[in-house]
Amino acid sequence: MKKIQNYINGQFLSALSKNYKNNSSPITGKIYSKFPDSDHEDIDKAVMAAKKAFPKWKSLGKKGRYNLLMSLADMLDENFDKFVEAESYDNGKPEWIARSVDIPRVSENFRFFATASLHFSSECHEMDGKAFNYTIREPIGVAGCISPWNLPIYLLTWKIAPALAAGNTVVAKPSEITPMTAYLFSKIVHKSNIPKGVINIVHGLGEKAGEALTKHPDVPVISFTGGSNTGKKININCASLFKKLSLELGGKNPSIIFNDANFNEALNISLKSAFSNQGQICLCGSRIFVQSKIYNKFKTAFVEKTKKLTVGNPKNKVDLGAIVSKAHMNKIINYIQLAQDEGGTILTGGNRIRFEGDLREGYFIEPTVIENLDYKCIVNQEEIFGPVVTIMPFENEDDVIKMANATKYGLSASIFTSNVSKAHRMSSKINSGIIWINSWMMRDLRIPFGGMKDSGIGREGGFNSLRFFTETKNICVKI
Ligand code: TXE
User: Fold this and answer.
1) Does the beta carbon of 108 lie inside 6 Å of ligand 1?
2) What angle separates helix 180-191 from helix 152-165, to the nearest 10 degrees?
């Protein structure tokens, strides 16, 4: 059985305890590899290596780091197909999604931030001939990057790339649920010319290895993407050590469809937003609000389209693959049961799917649409993070703003209307960090990305990431 290894100081190592945990594929439900069950000692070893490597990496300067990161990006592209297959098998997502969304972003993250670092500039404040202040942004040191399982290598490199481009060294802790592509990544880093100790990958459980990273006194900056409850714990751990912290957490995002929307466009985009990646994207639109005049027509068409979505072997061109783990599948099924207990009507879906043959023990769920739920009920408040959406009617703008804003989350929202003024009016009243008008997930890597309320702290993307991974220093010069 394949053994995933930690990558510390340019070496592939088991955990110091020599303990491993099983890793299974959600497509078959079978264990197919093991990963190191690392603890604070492994994290400490990785942090020491990263700390030692920092001065040299910093001194390479922007251009030196740019050259190495661009050449790493080329090497990642050469291994594109391996990443696609590994990500799909480990996570359960259809291979075509890994091929078109996840894996292209891996090298793109490095090219984007390597290039951005060359264009990154700071300010000068002149004081009417008396003095001028110039501001510099310096790398901080060892950056801790903790990533989730839904877009495993896409999000891991979304953190590692800006941290390195800004001149920091990295200790990364990938999700224990999907460790395989991070291991592949470390193998490519090993063959590259990136100096040893600059990138360290430590596998293991969140409460053990992850927590040790957030508590390590020599890791002054932590970037985390994952669940809001985990974010809360990390926030507490980091606060007492005054760490710089970026938290990109959950969402319960509304898709709002007005009577005057382009019907087919709203239908197709809200469907994609509901079920992409089995509904396991923090940006997925899981609460659909439709204005009353078109509610019945929209609901019927949405349910018809949902019924036509294909679920199956991720190797084939299916719409939905497997749910990431058994525990997560059971969590989703429990929410579907709860929806019925709360008075909801299942319009389509609602069940686990059992296939024959190799996929029999795989974790597949029918895409599910639920009606007749109050906007305040638990199912409309908590992040399900699966192929489950609720659909609700609304009368007017005030009505839908009240409902859309009525959760603890505030990550993203999609608004469908052909009235530009209404789109702007609504956008200013929705409490979310990201708003899409007549669209969903149109990603520009330069924009500030992140949420309000329990959806997180800070913004990633473009120069925001470079600012986050640097310390600001102002120097005042008297003239
Ligand atoms: O995520 P966790 P889980 C949501 C989604 C999901 C729920 C739980 O609703 O059902 O979170 O998923 C590491 N200190 N999202 O449990 O635990 C962990 O090892 C330090 C939303 O899988 O948040 C992994 O590397 N690290 C989401 C990472 O945190 C800790 C994406 C994320 O795991 C830790 C995924 C600790 N105490 C889940 N505990 C999104 N918004 O994108 C865990 N980790």
Assistant:
1) no
2) 40
Residues with Cβ within 8 Å of residue 364, at least 6 apart in sequence: 311, 312, 320, 321, 322, 323, 352, 353, 354, 355
325: which DSSP letter? -
Q: Measuring from atom 27 of ligand 1, which residue has the nearest CA?
A: 226
* pLDDT for 188: 98
Residue listed under structure tokens 């979310």: 432
**Chain centroid, CA 332 distance in Å:** 19
Cα(117) to centroid(ligand 1), Å: 29
Pocket test for ligand 1, best of 178, 230, 332, 452 (most atoms within 8 A of CB): 230
What pLDDT shows up at residue 78? 98
Segment (H or E) for 331: helix 326-341
Regions of the chain with pLDDT less than 50? none
| pLDDT value of position 461 | 97
Q: Is the CB of 40 under 6 A from ligand 1?
A: no
Q: Please, is 90 exposed, middle or buried when counting C-beta atoms within 10 Å of its C-beta (0-12, 13-18, 19+)? A: buried
Beta partners for residue 172, in sequence order? 145, 201
Question: Has 282 been annotated as catalytic?
Answer: yes
| Residues forming a β-bridge with 359 | none
* 248 in catalytic set: yes
CA distance 25 to 30: 6
Q: What 3-state DSSP class applies to 84?
A: helix
How much distance in Å is there from the Cα of 41 to the middle of ligand 1?
22
Total-model pTM:
0.97
Cα four-point dihedral sign 161, 163, 169, 170: negative
